[in-house]
Amino acid sequence: MANRSSLPRASFAETAGFLSSVVLPLLGKGVILRRPPVVAMAQRLELDRRAVETVQGLRERHGDGPLLLPVPGHPYALILSPSHVSRVLELSPQPYAAASDEKRASLSHFEPHGVLVSDDKARQARRPYNEAILDEPCPMHRLAERFLAVVEDEALELTDAADYFTELNWDRFAVGWWRMARRVVLGEGARDDHKVTDLLARLRADANWAFLFPRRRWLHARFLERLDEHLRRAEPGSLAAVIRETPAAKGTDPLGQVPQWLFALDGLARATFRTLALLGTHASIRARAEAEIQGSGPRELPFLRACVLDTLRLWPTTPVILRQAQRDVEWEAGTLRKGTGIIIFSPFFHRDETRLPQAHRFAPEEWLEGRPEDQGLVPFSDGAVRCPGRHISLMLSSMMLAALLRRRAFVPVGMEGIGPQDRMPGTFSPFALRMRPEAPPSLPRA
């Protein structure tokens, strides 16, 4: 007989503690568009470390859960076991929908027809289309050779600027990264169109407030109009050209899928810049990366990809994975009721020292062995809703790191606490990072 008992339930005081120490800092930093001053404050006050400790305390008191959080008006279930992470993600989008109420409220500001907020019928057209354009599940995109040339161009400009300005900081890196991103997605004519990504940033700032801020449809229309101008050119060697060549089923809305790709590349920029900093403080890991990047032409670069993956483990760009139960579901501990929101707080699993010896250190080698998903390590989610752009994202990030390392070794300036002997901080803001360029000792200078 099905178990109709209730799942373990947090007290109102525990729920308030979770909201104040986990949810509020996440909202403050900006879920969709990061707020640099708040990220800096979170790093100074170690808010992310405290958030993980809060969830650890809940697991110690209530076991593996799922743990019900009695939030007025909308119950939530907090996942506390790696095996439960796998179960929820493997059973998405049914019975656990990826298009949760919160996600719809946020993403509808700039991608109301994106696959992440689509119902089951629309998703059947949009998910395969995203996979086709992004070449999921291929590690190397069909346009890898062209994308490598774009990355090399922008990396050369970044390293030349670092010579002139002495240091490479976030603002300069972000300009180069976005030039690369626009060329890859929209074509050469979009390289210097900062306006199109600025419009997206304004919409993402609105999305931070989800349902608390009204949708600015006129601003969204301006953004789509500018985006469509680039896509209609369909310049060879860009994703825009692949869109032109790929048939779209009814209801796909190809234009409506592109904002998510640009949005995802923003988080990847932060991860890439953090990884560059870590390679500057971990000499043995940098030496292994430098050995891998010798040679020419587009290659998979598995170790550099692992470096990016471990940076994403330490500081996930999506710290909360949300799902929503579409029907009553039986668990060992009780029944998860229809409509319950499901919270997977990634840092809790990514930094769990009770299971992971590498929890607080930079350990990219761990990604080259086993199945990290079984440990709850899911920087790109998992299952049928896993990010369809994970391979192209890792390809672009590893290409950029290789192109920079081939020309310079970058060492963080005025940054302590991220060396091989250090416990990695819970928060690591890329916005204040500064890199001192040096000629790499083991590679010829480009």
From TrEMBL:
This protein's record includes keyword Heme: yes
Protein name: Cytochrome P450
Family: Belongs to the cytochrome P450 family.
Annotated keywords: Heme, Iron, Metal-binding, Monooxygenase, Oxidoreductase
